[in-house]
Fold Acyl-CoA dehydrogenase family protein.
Amino acid sequence: MSATSSMPKRPSDPLDLVDVDSLLTDEEKAIRAATRQVCADVVDPHVMQWYEEGDLPARELAREFGRVGLLGMHLHGYGCAGMSAVDYGLACLELEASDSGIRSLVSVQGSLAMFAIWRFGTEEHKQQWLPRMATGEAIGCFGLTEPDHGSDPGSMRTRARKDGDDWVLNGSKMWITNGSIADVAVVWANAGEENGGIRGFVVPTDTPGFAAHKLTHKMSLRASVTSELTFEGLRLPADAVLPDVTGLKGPLACLSEARYGIVWGSLGAARSSLEAARRYSMERIQFGRPIAGFQLTQAKLASMATELQLGQLLALHLGRRKDTVGLRPEQVSVGKYNNITKALEICRTARTILGANGVSGEYPVMRHANNLESVLTYEGTVEMHTLVIGQALTGESAFR
């Protein structure tokens, strides 16, 4: 038998050059296909309009996503699907291939608000909120970032003080996804050293003293609801506090969950942009031939495809470890640092292949590139993840 006749067949997906799909189980592929289908049905036909309008029918989408088990899908019990980290990652990739704002809706709901309640809340918190959040009946948000304190949450100005058996919150939060449509907010506040320092609170958004204002004039993540939260004399009962965590380890644990989703999700934006550029290059005729036949174009496509596959292998490796032994913070940082920077580079390079058409809303590339500028920053800037990795390498903290 000749060497050529024994070669394996080429993958059905031309972007899967190293057969990453062969590492997935049939169940994982089915979850990916189901997520891709719901996006094709309820997101893709409308997402460019939502982006242009700077709005999102988030409640309607949440119910659709809840119907197929995407909300809190990696959590167990309380109506959640109980799927694996790899399952969740694959879903994030497909959601962000439609739009980063769509993945953010699911990520904030499941990996921030629901995870905080699931991991640190009382049984009453869990019973009250998680089943309704899993179906999309109730929407959650996560209040950590403040107008003047993003990368340094330990310096937050939102305060919680004891007043008898109650807690009283005053302060504000900024850049909060789902904030103005949320039914419940997980809010982090400084309660003073005598009360454990940073504490988390489960806050129904109809509580007097709570207000949310939708942010406008965004040039990125436009198909997403982003808000400022304010608390003025917001009075909560004693049992509103998350009892099982004090200090920054609570919000940082939640952020690690959400950052893991970004490791996968950013690749969805990259894949969508690469595929748009690949198809365009085969259809666009210049100098009497498709531009796909020119060496410079092929060099761009080869580089983008290679980085995409390497990012997928990294995401899958981290997902398998998360499902078995768990992830250390620096491992999540490596994933976000690499995949978001490479995804943004892929989108920018894809735009050059499309030329002037790359800025047109008829193609997804510029929308993805604009969105990834936000993803690059939120849930840990590139600089902060760089320092996490640097500390793991040297044992020296360079944060201060």
Notes: The first helix runs from residue 26 to 42. DSSP finds eleven helices and eleven strands in the chain. The radius of gyration is 22 Å. The CA atoms of residues 160 and 169 lie 4 Å apart.
